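Quick one, probably user error.
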């Protein structure tokens, strides 16, 4: 019914940049919140950034001033522009979407996860 597809991960040197994209497809009525989480080896998954339907954004402290989250509601897509990347940013990045979806005659609020994309920052 609903699918989140991520792209944009890869290998980059410290100080470099990457842009992640996450496109939601399916019978989507509206978006409540979309965001990015990450999980490094041996660590818990943590929220990186979120953007709500009023374009309010929230960032975790380690990425403030370096990462920018944005969305395109017409495309049901969220982006994460990552600048000045550091080795400690290395993780699998997961897209998360809190959506209102259409299921037959019903509108339901559901949370979906992307498949994850690897970001590796290394010299």
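Nope, works fine. Designed sequence:
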């Amino acid at each position: 019914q609903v699918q989140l597809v991520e792209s944009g991960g890869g290998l980059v040197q410290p100080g470099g940049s990457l842009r992640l994209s996450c496109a939601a497809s399916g019978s989507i009525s509206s978006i409540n919140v979309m965001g990015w989480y990450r999980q490094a080896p041996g660590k818990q998954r943590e929220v990186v950034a979120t953007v709500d339907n009023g374009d309010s954004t929230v960032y975790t402290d380690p990425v403030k001033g370096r990462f920018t989250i944005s969305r395109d509601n017409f495309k049901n897509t969220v982006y994460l522009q990552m600048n000045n990347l550091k080795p400690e940013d290395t993780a699998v990045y997961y897209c998360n979407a809190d959506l209102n979806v259409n299921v037959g005659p019903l509108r339901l609020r559901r949370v979906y996860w992307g498949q994850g994309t690897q970001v590796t920052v290394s010299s």
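The CA atoms of residues 27 and 102 lie 5 Å apart.
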